Amino acid sequence: MAAPVVSLVDLHKSYRLGETQVQALQGASLDLHPGEFTALVGPSGSGKSTLLNMAGCIDQPDRGQVLLAGRDVSRLSDDERSRLRNRKIGFIFQSFNLIPVLDVVENVELPLLIQPGIAAAERRERAMQAIAEVELEGFARQRPDRLSGGQRQRVAIARALITRPVLVLADEPTANLDSATTQRIVDLMRALNETRGVTFFFSTHDENLIRQVARVVHISDGRILDAQGVVPNPSGPR
Ligand code: ADP
Ligand code: MG
Question: What is the SS3 assignment for 164?
Fold first, then answer.
């Protein structure tokens, strides 16, 4: 098997909440391999968002290692880490996190603005391609508030893919969507996974969605239950 896109090794993370320390991660370990399509499943408060934030270099563990494309993220400077994050990882959030004053194409090209050496024309062209991939061509000049929830999430997917990342992380991407829209979003992610080989890792509660995923990883109290390696999903498609 190819080297993992990301390895999470014995991650610990606690948060201070008033007088108490909340243990969000207590020795979570996980490898994600190129081309995998993996769901992260666990009850509310089990550490899903914290784990995704570590994998995405949004936050750092108190203890343990995050290896991204073979590099130990903790050894990088803030600048190097930001650059690695911008180039290698795409993010999709439950609440879409689009910028309301920007239209669809401007939202989608945002991650490219901080990459030096990409001319405005190329940026626009790549944004339009990404918008076409999520079938929103007719909406490029609309602002997010004119779009439905499913359309907004498709904009967020286009924005996540614009840098051609090796890993796309999504934190409950369908939690705000109805079941028909959820199905469209999953079909889209699945198609991008299959045609582009993008590794997807997303948290979800949705049983219907979980059944469609090849690999399901369970988290409870800040620990991955079915730890390393590929655990086949018995009800999944392969
Ligand atoms: P999930 O995404 O599975 O609901 P989280 O990763 O958000 O779980 O949270 C795991 C635990 O850490 C929870 O007990 C939560 O309350 C706590 N937690 C998460 N973020 C913070 C924070 N910024 N400050 C304090 N506690 C936090
Ligand atoms: Mg969460």
Answer: coil
pTM above the 0.85 mark?
A: yes
CA-nearest of 65, 58, 78 to 167 is 58
Neighbours of 150 (CB within 10 A): 18
- How many Å lie between the centroid of ligand 1 and the Cα of residue 136? 34
* Separation of CA 220 and ligand 2 centre (Å): 13
| Sign of the dihedral through C-alpha 54, 105, 125, 190 | positive
> For atom 24 of ligand 1, which residue has the closest CA?
15
Nearest CA to ligand 1 atom 16: 45
**pLDDT (mean) for 91-96:** 92
Cβ–ligand 1 contact at 48 (below 6 Å): yes
CATH number, domain 6-229: 3.40.50.300
Domain ranges of the chain: 6-229
In the chain, what percentage of residues exceed pLDDT 90? 77
CB atoms < 10 A from the CB of 11, how many? 27
State the residue for tokens 């914290």: 50
How does pLDDT run across 37-72, given as a tens digit for each residue? 999 999 999 999 999 999 999 999 999 999 998 899
Residue nearest to atom 14 of ligand 1 (CA): 45
